[in-house]
Design brief:
alpha+beta, seven-stranded mixed sheet, Formiminotransferase-cyclodeaminase, Chain B, domain 1, Four Helix Bundle (Hemerythrin (Met), subunit A), 3 domains, Alpha-Beta Plaits, four-stranded antiparallel sheet
Length: about 575
Amino acid sequence: MTDQLIECVPNFSEGRDLAIIKQITDQIQSVDGVQLLDVDPGKATNRTVVTFVGSPQLVVEAAFRAARKAAELIDMSKHHGEHPRFGAIDVCPLVPVANITMDETVVYARQLAKRFGEELGITIYCYEYAAFTESRRNLANVRSGEYEGLKDKLTRPDWKPDFGPAAFNARSGATAVGARDFLVAYNVNLNTTSTRRANAIAFDIREKGRPRREGNPITGKIVKDDKGNPVTIPGSLKSVKAIGWYIEEYGIAQISINLTNLSVTPLHIAFDECCKKADARGVRVTGSELVGLVPLKSMLDAGRYFLKKQQRSVGVSDKELLKIAVKSLGLNDLYPFKPEEKIIEYAIVAKAKKSTRLIDMTVADFVEETASESPAPGGGSVAAAVGAFGAALATMVANLSAHKRGWDDRWEEFSNWAEKGKQYYVELLRLVDEDTSAFESVMAAYGLPQSSDSEKTARKQAIQAATKRAIEIPLRVMVTALSSMEVIQVMAETGNPNSISDAGVAALCARTAVLGAFLNVKINAGNLNDKGFVSGVLSRGEKMKSDAVTKEHAILEAVAARM
């Protein structure tokens, strides 16, 4: 992916009238090039969280159109809901996703905020990274007093809006526009209907904590410092905001959490901490739900975390990691969890056109595509695929070894090898399509026009650049497949004896991948003018070829000795 990509997650103060929600989201879909990924209405909160992605300018336009429609349809003077809010378009954050910095995202957020204020006449406050002052960085501060307190708030000079009118608009309220890191809205379900108990657990975990009180921790007078500010007892988790509420449609209380920095407090840690604090208060966590989308990494990290707690290998497929994460977090508690709708990377793929990647084909389709009259996929892609099979076999042996009866004290040792093997087969799978892409780039370069001297020069340069890439990709296949032989050899020597033959087949696959990819390196090297580069690549390739054959012999000898 080379284009800049940002995500927009506007929250609209309407979660019950689906016709209104659809009119708003239709505006987003009216912008070509923007992908609407998720629409998550909540009846109790009377709020809908919408997620869409695209290039920055297109996202700004889609957000503007949606806000214009929301201002037309939503009347805040009649709005009631469980979630804190102060406007029809309550918040509208932009989130950098790919090939764009936070500073660049801030520019687009402020551009959007200005359009909201000037063209729609909405009172606008900029928050998080887009904030003009530190006091407005925190959304909770910006939204303090909510809609009901907005009229009085706007009379204060220190709350003059960043854009738009400083007069109270009873229909639209105010909107917070920001640029922020990826935020995960996450609710933890409890086996209680008590909002007070849910709030107590929320105060236990959230970074802000709870006010310190004199005497009785519930009814005692709040302790204040010399400046008259409440003294707080910090909660147990950093970068976490949380409150408790009762959700009538499910008949349960929840801890509503915003995880503002997943590298500080990830999903699984927040869930486990809720379990601990709930248990201490005689309450049980029954599951959880994600509002909006979550990064794939967050879910995979959760899967690894829970597998490690079970002392099981974490070097399993992404599909298996997701299965463990969903089960452990109880994400099916209220309704089925659908990865293609809730995980941002999967949602983008699902909303795009049908995949043309080779690795998304069935094995039969891949074989038949290889056998067709088209020159691609060819030997380079097949070499990478064979190498991926070899690394996958070694990973399988490591996983089986980690779970072998009587080897419980060695689970972590083999889990580490399985993770390493997985890294190799994932990279080799990526190179299956990269090799075909490199070949197509060479063909495209040869097809460039050459009617003028400048066009001839540009064509020659394009051919040389594409050819160099067509050498570097199979060279990467060689490096990765050869590296995977370390895992294969350890599995042949120390892995589960019942799978020793699999380690042998893995060695044969890895050797084939190295030698096969080298053939692609050599045939493309003949068309490159940079002879110094070619000489170095061929010398390096010959060394890797020799090492692969030597390692294959050693592995097969180890296999024979244990069979």
